[in-house]
Amino acid sequence: MAERGFEAERDKLSNYIDLEQWGFILNRFSEVLGVDIYTVDLKGKIMTRPQRALKGSKLIETPLQVVQRLLRKSAAANTLQEETGPLAITHTLIPILGEGTEPLAYLVVGPLVLGSRAPRAELERFARKEGWDLLELEGAYQQLKLFSFVGMKSMLDLLSEVCNYLVQPSPLKEKVEETFSQLDNFFATLLDLALRATKADSGSVM
Predict the structure, then answer these.
(1) Are 91 and 66 in contact (CB under 8 A)?
(2) Residue 48 has what DSSP assignment?
(3) Most exposed of 1, 26, 157, 176 (fewest Cβ within 10 Å)?
(4) Angle between helices 149-166 and 19-33 (to 10 degrees)
(5) Which pTM does this prediction carry?
(6) Which long-range contacts (CB under 8 A, 24 or more apart) does 175-180 make?
C-alpha cells in the first residue's frame, strides 16, 4: 500500500513533466547556485535526489523533522515556507502548483547559511552540545553556501517562477501576451540574481 501511494504521488507531477528531465533541470540550478535543490512528494518522500549530496556530517543532511514541519505549514497556506535553525542554517519549501491551487509536489532548497556565518566560538558550543567532532562540523559548515536575505529571496523567486512555469499546461500558446509577461518577469528575476551574485552594476538579457 505504501508503495502504491508513493507512485500515486509521483504521478501527480509526472503528469505535467518528465521526472528525469525535471531532475536534470534542478541539478543544473543546484550546480549554478551551489545549494541542494530536490523534490519531495506531498508526504515528504524524495522524488528527485540532490546532486550535490554533501557528505561528512549530520549538519548537511536535511532532517526529516524539518521537512515535515515545513510541509505542515505549507499545506495550510499553499505558500513558500522556510525555517532557520542553529548556526543560521536554513531550509525552504516551495510548492509546485501546476494548473490549480493544490500542490503537485514541493521543492526543498537547502541547507544553506542565511545572513552570516556563525563565529567559531558558536560552532564550538554547538559541537559540544550535539556531541559532534568540531573539525568535521567546521568542514561541513564551510561547504554550505552563504546567502544574503536579498540574495536568497531572488533565488527562491527565480526557482518558484521557473518550476511553476515548467509544469503549466500547453494552452499557454493561447495566451501569448500573458506568456510574454511571465517571461519578462522571469528574465528580470534571473538578471537580478545574476547582478547580485556578480556584484555588477548593470547587465542585460540577450
Answers:
(1) yes
(2) E
(3) 1
(4) 160
(5) 0.74
(6) none
Q: Helix (H, G, I), strand (E, B), or coil: what is residue 106? A: strand
In this structure, of 69-83, 140-154, 158-172, the range with the lowest mean pLDDT score is 158-172
Using a 10 angstrom Cβ sphere, with 0-12 exposed, 13-18 middle and 19 or more buried, the burial of residue 74 is buried
Q: What digits encode the pLDDT tens for the residues 144-166?
A: 999 988 888 888 888 888 888 78
CA pair distance 54, 147, nearest whole angstrom: 18
- What does the block give as the cell for 62? 536535511
CA distances in angstroms from 142 to 55, 77, 105, 111, 117, listed in the order given = 13, 34, 30, 12, 9
In whole angstroms, what is the distance from residue 20 CA to residue 49 CA? 11
- Owner of C-alpha cell 504521488: 9
CA dist 8 to 74, 99, 202, Å? Answer: 20, 18, 46
Query: Is the previous residue joined to 50 through a cis bond, with omega within 30 degrees of 0?
Result: no
Interatomic CA distance for residues 138 and 124, integer angstroms? 9
DSSP state of 42: T
- Report d(CA 157, CA 167) in Å as an integer: 16
Q: What is the pLDDT of residues 1-16, one digit of tens each?
A: 334 444 444 557 777 7
Angstrom distance (rounded) from CA 176 to CA 102: 25
How is residue 61 annotated by DSSP? S
Nearest 10 degrees: Cα torsion 30, 31, 34, 40: 20
